[in-house]
Write a structure and sequence with these properties.
With 201 residues, the protein is of the alpha+beta class. The chain contains eight helices and four strands; from the N terminus they run H-H-H-H-H-H-H-E-E-H-E-E. The chain folds into three domains: 3-70, 434 Repressor (Amino-terminal Domain), CATH 1.10.260; 77-151; 155-198, no CATH class. The protein binds zinc ion.
């Protein structure tokens, strides 16, 4: 799926309907910033907006995802390509999520093992400290790697405007979180809130 192609297509079809970004946004009850973001190729409309958007622009979802008016003869082939793209994207996100969990578990085991060695073995103080330093470094590296994988696995959903976005690593680390939500600032409406983590679109 080519987001920038779809974005240009949305802009083109919006103009063909003689609508401004603002007018299109009002019809969909979203902010005009969201429309502008789609048109710049920074994110696709969320699923619940796709049908109403297509209705307004008088195109099909298949056209929207393909970024062009699909010719009659190519219709099924394009639809299958778009479907496979979505499935592939979701599968890759699930894979990253699993890797992130495995990475976290290995880190915890390694850190525990190092701390136990340092605590229970008869060792010179210097070696003991070295083992503890290793444990701390392993913890930092492991958590960093797990977070890096997780931040790329899927999207966060803004509860105010429904935008799906991938946060920057800095925002991600700073945002305090529960298991499924993280406090982030939405790039579309600018509101900071607990955003739900979604692996799939
Ligand atoms: Zn928002």
């Amino acid at each position: 799926m080519d987001q920038s192609k779809t974005g240009k297509f949305i802009a083109q079809e919006r103009r063909a309907q003689n609508l401004t970004q603002r007018q299109l946004a009002d019809k969909l009850a979203i902010s005009d910033k969201t429309v502008s973001k789609w048109e710049c190729g920074k994110g696709l409309p969320e699923v619940s907006l796709m049908l109403p958007l297509c209705e307004i622009l008088q195109i099909t979802v298949n056209d929207l995802l393909s970024g062009e008016k699909v010719a009659e003869g190519d219709y099924q082939k394009k639809a299958e390509e778009n479907m496979m793209d979505l499935i592939r994207e979701n599968a890759e996100n699930k894979e990253r999520m699993t890797l992130s969990i495995i990475c976290g578990v290995i880190t915890i085991i390694a850190v525990c093992a190092l701390v136990m060695l340092a605590s229970y073995l008869e060792l010179p103080a210097a070696v003991r400290i070295l083992l503890l330093v290793c444990a701390v470094l392993t913890a930092i590296a492991g958590i960093g790697a797990a977070a890096r994988l997780e931040v790329k696995a899927g999207y966060y959903e803004c509860p105010h405007c429904g935008t799906l976005f991938v946060p920057t690593m800095t925002d991600y680390v700073k945002g305090w979180h529960t298991l499924t939500r993280r406090r982030l600032t939405c790039p579309t409406c600018g509101k900071t809130s607990m955003c739900r983590h979604r692996i799939t679109r």
